[in-house]
Amino acid sequence: MRRWLVLALVLSAAGAHAACPSGDYAGCKAGCEKGDGEACASLGGMYRTGGRGVARDEARAAELFRMACDLGSVNGCTSFREMYREGRGVKGRASE
After folding, report:
1. Burial grade of 34 (CB within 10 A; 0-12, 13-18, 19 or more)
2. What is the pLDDT of residue 5?
3. 41 vs 25: CA distance, rounded Å
4. Residue 47's closest CA among 14, 89, 77?
5. What pLDDT shows up at residue 59?
6. DSSP bridge partners of 34
7. Which of 42, 50, 69, 87 is deepest in the core (most CB within 10 A)?
8. Distance CA 58, CA 81 (A)
9. Euclidean distance between the first and final Cα of the chain, in Å?
10. Which run of H or of E encompasses 61?
11. pLDDT value, residue 51
12. Which domains, and CATH codes, for the chain?
C-alpha cells in the first residue's frame, strides 16, 4: 500500500506542470516563466513556425527549446536536437 501512495505522489507531482493549450501565447509564456518545461517547448513551437500572433523567430525557438530541455522536457530536447541538427536558429551551424 505504501508503494502505491509513493507512486501516486510522484505521478501527481510530475503532472503538476502541464503543457499550455496550443496557441495560448500568454498561457505558455506565463508557464515558461514559472519554470514549466512543456510550456517553454510549446512556446518554442510557436516561434519555430510563426503564426497565431507570433512572428517566426528560429533563434528564439531554439533558445526556448533548450530552456525546455534544461527543465526536463523531452519534447524540448527533441525539438532542440532537430533544430541543431538542421542548423536552424543556432549560431555556428549551416544556416547561420
Report:
1. exposed
2. 35
3. 12
4. 89
5. 96
6. none
7. 42
8. 13
9. 56
10. helix 58-70
11. 79
12. 17-86 (1.25.40.10)
CA 9-35-95 angle, 5° bins: 130
CA-CA distance, 93 to 51, in Å (whole number)?
25
DSSP code per residue over 7-60: HHHHHHHHTTSPPPPTT-HHHHHHHHHTT-HHHHHHHHHHHHH-BTTB---HHH
- Kindly give the parts of the chain with pLDDT less than 70: 1-19, 92-96
What separation in angstroms does the CA of 45 have from each of 12, 23, 66, 70?
Answer: 26, 9, 12, 16
Q: Tell the burial category of 21 from Cβ atoms under 10 Å away from its Cβ (0-12, 13-18, 19+).
A: exposed
φ and ψ at residue 48, rounded to 5 degrees: -65, -40
Of 64, 59, 72, 60, the residue nearest 42 (C-alpha): 64
The C-alpha atoms of residue 65 and residue 37 are separated, in whole angstroms, by 9
